[in-house]
Amino acid sequence: MKIGIIGGGASGIFAAIEARKKYSDITIFDKNDFLGRKLSSTGAGRCNLTNVNVSPDIYRSIKKFSFKDIIQRYDYGFLNNYLNQLGIHTYHTDDGWVYPLSNSARNISILLEDYLIRQNVKIYKNSSVSSFKKSNNRFQIKTDSGKVFEFDKLILASGGKAYPQLRASDEILQSLLNFGHALLPAFPALAPLKTSKHETKSLNGVRVDATLRILDHNSIIGSDFGNIIFTEWGLNGPGVMNLSHLVHQKNNLNIEIDFSSLLPQDFLKNVSNDKFLYLSTPLLSIFNKKIIDQLLLNLNVDVNSPFKMNDFRHLIKMMKFTEKILGTRDFEFAQISTGAIESSQINPESLESKLCPGLYFAGEVLDVFGPCGGFNLHWAFISGIIAGQLKS
Fold first, then answer.
1. Residue-wise pLDDT tens digits, 46-94
2. I need a labelling partner for 184 at 20 to 30 A (CA). Which of 65, 120, 289, 372 fits?
3. Which residues contact 201 (CB under 8 A, 6 or more apart)?
4. Could you tell me if 294 and 362 are in contact, meaning their C-beta atoms sit under 8 angstroms apart?
5. What CATH number has the domain bearing residue 375?
6. Are residues 281 and 220 part of one domain?
7. Which residue range is the domain that position 124 belongs to?
């Protein structure tokens, strides 16, 4: 039995690891000069492998979410044990983000490629697959160099359009149209947002936690709490990136940046006229002064206004900015993309095509994505493992 795997990223590597447990003839094709090229840049170079808080409720799909049972079964405990067996030892932060002890993503890609080589997995680097088809019950794939290979089963783990600077592309998905598979359009996800700068023009470079809400007119279509960075073109950081998938193909959306949740409980009880000279003084221990000054500017209040309790209560009620969303930044700035295969045409337990027996899928080609924090790499690993089991 010959198994071919298109894509040598996180999902393709783990598909090969799992498939090798049953079959001896495994081949990976990858565009880059080493496996795990995108993996080696994750977690700002530290490799955010997974998250202690992995749960089906955290994940989303553009269409119907079909993979709840997989994520329920293959949770953090399962994956952490799997990683340990491969010699990858981890730790996690207080908020559950999991990293290797080395804090080196590149080390992990080297370790995994070394493992595959020792398992006699054939690896074709700098090798792009231009198309594939099925003939006489076997899969034929053609590389850009014109070489043709045949396999009994095929795993498509080619990724999406995010990080084109790492040679990411979803062009190979076009071959699926010949099998009757439907494709969802690709958009940047987990991407920074481009916004107007009417209420935040002086905040470039400020980094802060805040509650974020995406507003369609007056209706909230998504919210999150997390870290954001104000930039010259809009907003960056995990908090805003987690909401970016909501803005595509929609017009006239706004984002509300609300700081009121950062105020200590019973904050106003400790504020009185005889304690503070200026209106802004009570906020100095909580917020960056640029945020305070911008809030006052937006309210047409002088930064040296004397403290008055009624004015301060009004200021507290107005602890938010609102900007118009102009779109996301391009794929080169996105962590993942949304272009994927229609889930109804995939077996949700084995990740095998319902239309083409012997064809399996893993990773970003599936309509699944989670927030920042290791959730998407977790999905890449476990979907690769499941596809690599090659259950028919």
1. 999 999 999 999 999 998 899 999 999 999 999 999 999 999 999 999 9
2. 372
3. 294
4. no
5. 3.50.50.60
6. yes
7. 2-188+336-388
